[in-house]
Design brief:
By secondary structure, this protein is of the alpha/beta class. The protein has helices spanning 2-11, 27-32, 48-55, 72-76; strands at 17-19, 36-40, 59-64, 84-88, 102-104. A 5-stranded mixed β-sheet has the order 1-2-3-4-5. The longest helix has 10 residues, at 2-11.
Length: 105
């Protein structure tokens, strides 16, 4: 099913990506045809390398304010964190909310 969705996305000029599935290993790209990965808390759980090994720099990591290893600044200095990492609040709110957080690496 995933492979079929990727075929349709590519036919329309769109990229398609996997989310939170390190278990796919290289099959996500090689077999399914995914172009990138979205990973929640891959730095927190030491999983970023499993994604970047397959997708290189095309890994979007979302880290959450309530579960950082240290500060976001110190986490971003780590070599193992994805180049495309964003810090967000866990429960979505609008940008007008005082709880709204969006920072990127």
């Amino acid at each position: 099913m995933a492979k079929l969705l990727v075929v349709h996305a590519h036919a329309d000029g769109l990229a398609d990506g996997q989310k939170n599935t390190t278990e796919l290993g290289s099959r996500g790209k090689a077999v399914v045809g995914y172009d990138f990965a979205v990973a929640e808390e891959c730095f927190r759980y030491d999983e970023c390398a499993r994604y970047t090994k397959v997708y290189g720099a095309a890994v979007i990591d979302i880290e959450y304010t309530d579960h950082l290893r240290g500060s976001f600044a110190s986490d971003c200095r780590a070599k193992s964190i994805s180049a495309m990492t964003a810090l967000r609040e866990r429960e979505p709110v609008t940008p007008r909310s005082r709880a709204y957080v969006y920072r990127n690496r």
